[in-house]
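Data card: per-record layout.
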Amino acid sequence: MHPMERKIKRQYDSRRRHEQAAETRRNIIAAANELFIARGYGQTTIKQVAARAGVSVETVYATFGTKASLLRHVWYVDFRGDEADVTLYDREEMQSILTEPDLPNRIRRHAVFVTASNRRIFPLLDALAGAAASEADAAAMLAEWADRRLDVATRYAHAAAATGQLGVSEEECRDVLYATMDGSLWAQLVGQRGWSDERFSDWLAATWIAALVRTT
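The structure for this 216-residue chain is written out next.
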């Protein structure tokens, strides 16, 4: 075989292995997500995840190391959409929202964004809440979610204050956002009372605007 042909073949084989490994990761994450939600985090075993994903137990451990690490990656994909180590706040969609100079319009866009996030993450969030009392991994993930939510609320409030349109202190804006972005309101009004996501996002935006934006 000509040296150039060998090089091309090696590149092809390397790319194919990379694609297969990425597909395996996606399959394992999807399987774990389904089982964590359906069976509960504590009741789900790596063996069950492997069977659902169609891989060996050894492959799951080799790919993610521990069940806690697998949970983290499942959370990232649910919350952010992929495994890239970029927070939701720093991603393009959120940064686009923050360029809106009119604070009420920014809040309306943010409410739509939060509503969509709530719909994505709440099934797993609910499963983790149910497991937190007995499963340290679930409790740790919920604590991290609270910390990250506080960080987002802090940064968002600082950006809102910079517009000069806040009617409350930056700290109060932070606390209101922190308390209302966690998914519990969405679960009660959409999940339990039958609201549509559109109705919820409209209500959330109106609530935030009334509570946070300067009226004069």
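Known properties of this structure: The mean pLDDT is 91. The radius of gyration is 21 Å.

See the next section for split statistics.
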